[in-house]
Design brief:
- There is one protein chain.
- The chain has 9 helices and 16 strands.
- It has helices spanning 4-11, 13-25, 34-46, 105-121, 143-149, 209-227, 265-285, 305-319, 375-394, and strands at residues 50-55, 59-65, 68-78, 127-135, 160-171, 175-176, 180-183, 185-194, 198-199, 234-243, 249-250, 253-262, 289-298, 301-303, 324-325, 345-353.
- The protein starts with a helix and ends with a helix.
- It is 34% helix and 28% strand.
- The chain is of the alpha/beta class.
- Helix 6 (209-227) runs antiparallel to helix 7 (265-285).
- Strand 3 (68-78), helix 4 and strand 4 (127-135) form a beta-alpha-beta unit.
- The chain has an 8-stranded mixed sheet with strand order 1-2-4-3-5-16-6-15, sandwiched between helices. It has a 4-stranded antiparallel sheet with strand order 10-12-8-13, covered by helices on one side.
- The longest helix is centred in the last third of the chain and has 21 residues, at 265-285.
- The chain folds into 2 domains: 6-183 and 300-394, Zn peptidases (Aminopeptidase); 185-298, Alpha-Beta Plaits (2-Layer Sandwich).
- It binds nickel (II) ion.
């Protein structure tokens, strides 16, 4: 198999860095990735891919035919940046105030283009197709779901799907591949507590929405600790509480915003059911009312066992035993989960942190930056995983 990918990808290093730094300097928010997708589309066209643009607004889908027919491997990269003001002295720091590649998606695009370069060079040796998906709007706006809904991923329909995320809390070069639950499902929770406003000095004539909210917040903390089986996993966090207008006015309403993270649908249902009962019970007991709106963001990333084994073996061959490992599943979420509805899938993490170089700020931090020396590894890994799958299938 293509042991040469590693060396070939190292040969692309300066190109990978150039792509990444250009994208980093010109970050674009969800569904606004016009410049980014233009660069992606032009590069893939030059490499000989069949390219479709404007998929789900700003997405790009590109197909490479191997020398012989066979199954289709999909590789996904996300392209969007975040509404964060970058704090960086780097020459490639964001030129767009308030917008920043703070999650490494600039690196994902660069590695995707690198893998596309490697696979195009070796197209004649491949028995099957490579389907690249450069996806908009991973961060907030459901880009993966929009790509699926566009229908562009059904011709040809992929037989297997891989994706890769740089991960700054792991040392540069470490590869995490594992089967099973990997990243959590996420819901947005919107709660409105309604009482009856009035004069701060006449509380007996009011129903104090802030006092009710205090009880609600305390009660919610019992759901995970008292209602969820200790062997299961759930996180219920309230991140915003807004209520009140003046020191001497009792608030009529309070709005809360939070998130629920789970792996198992049954656990999610348990938490939501208890949430409704507690909200209704606590607020009714104090004469108030509550409204709950649950907005599902994404399901859990569950790595398919067969896809994960293919990815693991490719990683072992590429970076060696010592660099490949496992971690405790993460409570962050990723809309890569959506692609699991289309075909067996596996999401891989590539360590990109380097504390010695000061490149270890967490994702979504204004100081986020990563060790660019992992870019060739990521490009080679994507190409190697896809190639390994096609070789495995050709041999069966
Ligand atoms: Ni990300």
């Amino acid at each position: 198999m293509n042991l040469s990918y590693r060396a070939e990808a190292e040969g692309l290093f300066s190109q990978l860095v150039a792509w990444r730094r250009d994208l980093h300097r010109h970050p674009e928010l969800s569904f606004q990735e016009v410049r980014t997708s233009g660069i992606v589309a032009r590069t893939l066209l030059d490499l000989g891919y069949e390219v479709r643009t404007g998929v789900a607004q700003t997405g790009v889908v590109a197909l490479l035919h191997g020398g012989r027919p066979g199954p289709t491997v999909m590789l996904r990269a996300d392209m969007d940046a975040l509404p964060i003001q970058e704090s960086s002295e780097a020459s490639y720091a964001s030129a767009h105030p308030g917008v920043m590649h703070a999650c490494g998606h600039d690196g994902h695009v660069a590695m995707g283009l690198g893998a596309a370069t490697l696979l195009a060079r070796h197209a004649a040796e491949l028995a099957g197709n490579i389907l690249f998906v450069f996806q908009p709007a991973e961060e907030r706006d459901g880009g993966a779901a929009a790509m699926l809904a566009s229908g562009a991923l059904h011709d040809p329909k992929p037989d297997i799907i891989f994706g890769l995320h740089l991960w700054n809390t792991l040392p540069a070069g470490r590869v995490i591949v594992q089967a099973g639950p990997f990243m959590a499902a996420a819901d947005v929770l919107r709660i409105v507590v309604r009482g009856r406003g009035g004069h701060g000095g006449l509380p007996h004539e009011t129903i104090d929405a802030i006092a009710v909210t205090g009880q609600v917040l305390t009660a919610l903390q019992t759901i995970v600790s008292r209602n969820v089986n200790p062997h299961d996993t759930a996180v219920l966090s309230i991140g915003m509480v807004h209520g009140g207008t003046a020191f001497n006015v009792i608030a009529e309403t309070v709005e809360l915003l939070g998130t629920l993270r789970t792996f198992e649908p049954t656990v999610r249902e348990t938490v939501l059911a208890r949430l409704r009962v507690l909200l209704d019970g606590v607020t009714a007991g104090m004469g108030a009312e509550a409204e709950l709106i649950v907005e599902p963001l994404t399901g859990p990333v569950i790595n398919d066992p067969t896809a994960s084994e293919t990815a693991r073996l490719a990683a072992l061959q590429l970076v060696g035993n010592a660099a490949v490992g496992r971690i405790t599943p993460l409570m962050v979420s990723e809309d890569f989960a959506e692609y699991g509805k289309l075909a067996p899938s596996c999401f891989i993490l590539l360590g990109s942190g380097n504390a010695e170089l000061g490149l270890d700020a967490p994702h979504h931090s204004p100081r986020f930056d990563f060790d660019e020396r992992v870019l060739p590894t990521g490009a080679a890994l994507l190409a190697a995983v896809a190639t390994r799958y096609l070789v495995e299938k050709a041999g069966t």
